[in-house]
Amino acid sequence: MTPEEGIRAHLDLQGGASAGLMLPIHWGTFNLAAHAWSDPAEGTIEAARKAHARIALPHPGEPFEPAAGTVPSAPWWRDVALTPEGGWPSAGADVAADTSRTADVTRTADVDDARTDTAGDIQGGAADGSGQPRVVPAG
Q1: Cβ(44)–Cβ(94) below 8 Å
Q2: Who contacts 34 (Cβ-Cβ below 8 Å, separation ≥6)?
């Protein structure tokens, strides 16, 4: 399902109008697609903005209360993903820029200095070239 289809399903389940909060799932935890790792999140932000839908953007595993006045809305992946050519799109009115959260990882270029999202692009990833994930301690 594309981000646009996800928003459409969200609206369809509410009778066509955005009355509730959408929580995008099944993205951001693995890099298994040909597109950039951050594309689903960026596409969902844009689709939600166009549909005037409210979305929550918690870090994977981050708890929040859907009925609360505020929900996680910072595009947190921008701190850990490679910046696309031309930079990140503007956050838009529905996603607040949150500079209070910073990542503990740094960006690195892959072998050919290409700007792609692979395990080698993030410090602590499989930079040894094996393509295998590395165990990272929790905490």
Answers
A1: no
A2: none
- Helix, strand, coil shares of the chain, percent, nearest 5, are 20, 5, 75
CA end-to-end span of the chain, whole Å?
A: 32
Burial of 113 (0-12, 13-18, 19+ CB in 10 A): exposed
pLDDT at 116: 45
- pLDDT, one tens digit per residue, over 25-68 is 888 777 778 888 889 999 999 999 999 999 999 998 899 999 88
For the entire predicted model, the pTM comes to 0.62
User: Which residues have a Cβ under 8 Å from the Cβ of 135 and sit 6 or more positions away?
Assistant: none
